[in-house]
Amino acid sequence: xxxxxxxxxxxxxxxxxxxxxxxxxxxxxxxxxxxxxxxxxxxxxxxxxxxxxxxxxxxxxxxxxxxxxxxxxxxxxxxxxxxxxxxxxxxxxxxxxxxxxxxxxxxxxxxxxxxxxxxxxxxxxxxxxxxxxxxxxxxxxxxxxxxxxxxxxxxxxxxxxxxxxxxxxxxxxxxxxxxxxxxxxxxxxxxxxxxxxxxxxxxxxxxxxxxxxxxxxxxxxxxxxxxxxxxxxxxxxxxxxxxxxxxxxxxxxxxxxxxxxxxxxxxxxxxxxxxxxxxxxxxxxxxxxxxxxxxxxxxx
Length: 300
What we know:
Structural class: mainly beta
Largest sheet: 6 strands, antiparallel, barrel
Number of domains: 2
Helix content: under 10%
Number of strands: 18
Shape: globular
Distance between the termini: 29 Å
CATH class of the largest domain: Mainly Beta
Oligomer: single chain
CATH superfamily of the largest domain: tm1086 (SG structure) domain
CATH architecture of the largest domain: 3-layer Sandwich
Strand content: 25-35%
């Protein structure tokens, strides 16, 4: 078995553009009454905001909130699917460096940790002292690179939403023509919900349904954390999120749980294939926070 991470991973990274994308922290979304899968009404924090106590490495469950996003939720312009936010969300990739360009936190550095399709937000991790200085008026520049990434020795594997920086730290191992990828858990296909059928794996996420906690426990998924890598079994994202027997998708948990039917922790696509080239290996330490030295793992 041969480790192929870092400089030995043959990719087209030297051909990828590196482009600046300007954004700003997004105010949290307001809320009217929502309805839980149990029929109970709720009105709690939703997506968006500068969140001081939810970070990569924290639990993906049991927040008194719906779809909470870790650290800073950012957008460009007025948000939504129109420009410039469309480009900001599509081309920001997990592991991209972010620099604060104005305000008291000017010059401080953060890192992209995910993107949330339903809210059209990009999530960015910053150190605590930076969070205390940030405002919603401050400008941020993402050093965007990653969309278009290819594994040159594994042409059937599609890559999305991750920087070459992250790919090189994921402890991927090659054996007998397959790539073995550490994941914190394996998610059965029947648990996937909101997002199935969409053809935009390069810009958003789709959710692990969490309304049936017994099923989560049965498949050892109740300990998932923000930033964990997971394998979605019998699902593919080569041309959109859909069921396909024998396919596989490796993704990252980018937002926390939801009370709503068909929703739960969100998964952004990183790697996918239909031919068995990707083999998931369960490792509870498989988290982007450990790989990138961010969130609860910062300076650990």
